[in-house]
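Changelog-adjacent note: as of this version, every example in the card shows the full chain rather than a window. The one below runs 352 residues end to end.
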Amino acid sequence: MQQSQEKILRSLKPSKIVLPLLIGGGVAIYMFLTQIDLNTVGQYVQKANLTWILVAILVLLIRDGGYVWRIRYLTNGELSWKSSIYTILLWEFASAVTPSAVGGTAVAVFIINREGIRFGKSLAYVMLTALLDNSFFILAAPIGLLLSQGEAFPTYEEGTGLFGIGLRATFWASYVLISAYTLFFAWGLFFKPHGFRWLLVRLTSRGWLKRFQKSAQEIGNDVVIASDQIKGKNAVYWLNAIISTIFVWSARYLMVNCLLAAFTRLTLENHLLIFARHVVMWVIMLISPTPGSSGTAELSFDFFFGQYIGSFGVALALFWRLYTYYPYLFVGVMILPRWLRRVLAKEREQVA
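Full-length structure tokens:
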């Protein structure tokens, strides 16, 4: 976790937006040329409900506001409101330019640390945030599958058969991996940090795994440090942390409900099923090898939600990404230089 400043700053370089733009743009062009009917798009746009589109944008802002509030709360107010906003926007940027399975965790630790919070605390807050998020996926996915009565996965008639089978297999593989990873780290962080470190070192002590022993030792040390920092939190702290996590992720998923409602009439049952499908789709996206799930997200969106708006689903998938993903690429590029100047000025003041 304690990566060098130079390595982390390289991961935040503005040029990092090129790859996700190329992948996302390539998929968008392919979908546009092969699947989008401009006449159909025009018809849906003409009958669009502007109120629902505005609500979708409002939900996006509420979600980001929830993220800002949560990180400020989890840090017990040690992060100012301005620092919390910088942290969330740069964290979103880092997540957008790295594969979903990697995320921006190391970058988030670096950002919070440079905002004046000790490394151990920064690490603890970021690890805690990651565990809360993953716990939401672990619990929400089976609830979604149960409430959807088996319809969380589109039927093969609604999409390509092989693609549908692949999505099911990918979902379960992703769900098992996330569950195992989360439970293992939760055990180490909350119960047996020293046992966690010993086990990691032991597992990487033989054969070809020995090349990973140094990294395993560092991860184990990080968990021990983080565990010491989160001890003693009361029930109110954990309750607010859990509620805020449910709030921000529910807001993220409801954006799709709002977008679909802008172009077609939906019943309450439809809304519940769309929410459940979005949870399932997100679990699949979590192990996407592309930066910010570029390409994977657009293709999955049409497969999961195309039944509600037909061929317009392809165009809506592109619009969904245009307002929920690509803005963070450009916002990150714009605010990164300002943030660097800000933290360097802070450090010079402290030295003086």
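Structural remarks: The mean pLDDT is 85.
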